[in-house]
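Re: that chain you flagged

S.,

Sorry for the slow reply, it's been a week of failed gels. I finally had a moment to sit down with the sequence you sent. For the record, here it is as I used it:
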Amino acid sequence: MLSFRAKIAFYLEDVTTAIGLTVNLLILALILLSLVIYVTQTYPLSATWQMWLRQLDWGILSLFSLEYLIRFWCAESKLGFVFNIFSILDLLSILPLFFGFFDIRFFRIFRWFRILRVIRFFGSDLSIFQIKTSDQIVFTRILLTLFSIIFVYAGLIYQIEHPINPQVYRTFFDAFYFAVVTMTTVGFGDVTPLSDGGKMVTVLMILTGVLLIPLQISDLTKQTLKSGTQIDYPCPDCGLPRHDIDANFCKNCGAKLLKKPD
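Prediction finished late last night. Pasting the structure tokens below so you have them in one place:
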């Protein structure tokens, strides 16, 4: 029988049971809500709305802090947990609000990748526009990667430039527009950074746009083409879930398929 700590650790990662799926969906909802609050607070709002959003964000922050402590308590290797990349991102998104440092709540968007586990839970029978779940996971990962990188860069440039250049970087959308234009190397020139930090982030945006985005777009294109030539048909030996429509043998282990895929 699992101990109480082991049960907590299981449900924090599990999406195959009702409790685990509910816990993970609630965490996803809180992450999304916290990002919406962050973006909304960059717009001119009344004092009342600012107060309500600030209190709501502090409530979410408290829940995230509690979740971090629980995960640390449940971890078998405390050191491994502390230096895990997602744990570091969680900690970075929590500490600034406690100590008044640079606000990097936008890093929480990387935690949204846990949606991949939720999609996988629904199984291969789920399809959208004839795209099976295994393809949806790849599509979702690529799109999340692209959007997350742009979102984080927009948050960085907003936090750096807004205090010294509020007329240009008025809201998060202005920063997001600048990030998209810069990373796609369009470069209209209507929005430019003034600070050295902003210029450095801009250089990183350009390098990321040149190196990473074409790779992600290429993967997305390949997956789109592949999804039209493959069907879900598991290999009887190795269990490889998908094969080409005209395949007679498994491309992974070479075993003969029991029947020709329809």
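What I noticed first: The first helix runs from residue 4 to 13.

Talk soon,
D.
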